[in-house]
Amino acid sequence: MSRKRTEEEKEKEQNTGCSVMLIPDNGDPIRSFKTSLNKIVTIIVTLSAVFLILICYCIFSTIMIKQGVITPKATAEELPDVQALQEENMQLKEQNAEYATRVSTLGTELAALEKESQVADVNKEEQSIPTGFPMDGTASLENTQEDDATNPVTFSGPVATAIKAAGTGVVKDITTDAVAGNIITIDHQNGYETVYTTNANLRIKEGDEVKKGDIICIIAVDGERLIYQIKKDGSFIDPMSMMEIAG
């Protein structure tokens, strides 16, 4: 009974088969082949599964691209190039950070230099004002001639006493008088001029730049005198008032 049923099932399966005919348009012989319904179902299921997998892959790739995890060109062959670009980008970022640090440092240094320059300019202006004492501390004040329009002040000192520039400036001219001796004029380039009249030995020449306190003459004879005068914008002023301002 069971054997008979099995044969019937086989016969039924054979009967559920189908024939596929290929009819060419060019008149070639008709071709046909037989297949079972089960095979057709298997093929359809397989193709559907493959198609579904492809759809899932496309969706996954799209999501990854939007999230920036991968790029359309980031294939397996291009991954080394991508890594090289990433490394190069990192190096550029490091270089930019280093350059930014250098620029910041240079800015700080320039600001410091500018400040130093401003301080130097202020100091130069202050040093150019003839407030210094024109001789060494061993010198003595002999007299002031307040009734003289040129407001001269006379100092004297022993041998080797230095006569000094009262302020920074340029030796404008040096003239010689048969009685008074050397007449030295220093232009302080700020409206002030100082005049030193003495027979002391010269240590400078016309055109020399001198700083405040520089030695311009050395007394060679005891009691040698220095007649000291100051001009402001071409007019003589009292030298004592300038030295008092200097303290």
Write the layout of secondary structure elements.
Blueprint: H1 2-15, E1 18-22, E2 31-35, H2 37-66, H3 79-128, E3 140-144, E4 153-157, E5 162-164, E6 169-177, E7 181-187, E8 192-198, E9 201-202, E10 209-210, E11 215-218, E12 224-232, E13 235-237, H4 239-245
Antiparallel strand pairs: 1-2, 3-4, 4-12, 5-11, 6-7, 6-10, 7-8, 8-12, 9-11, 12-13
Quick overview of this protein structure:
The chain is α+β, with helices and mostly antiparallel strands and 247 residues long. It has four helices and 13 strands.
Task: Give a verbal description of the structure.
- The protein is of the alpha+beta class and 247 residues long.
- Among the domains are: 2-66, no CATH class; 140-245, Glucose Permease (Domain IIA).
- Helices cover 41% and strands 27% of the residues.
- The protein is built from 4 helices and 13 strands.
- It has helices at 2-15, 37-66, 79-128, 239-245; strands spanning 18-22, 31-35, 140-144, 153-157, 162-164, 169-177, 181-187, 192-198, 201-202, 209-210, 215-218, 224-232, 235-237.
- The strands form 3 sheets. Strands 3, 4, 6, 7, 8, 10, 12 and 13 form an 8-stranded antiparallel β-sheet that branches.
- It is rod-shaped.
- 15% of the residues are buried.
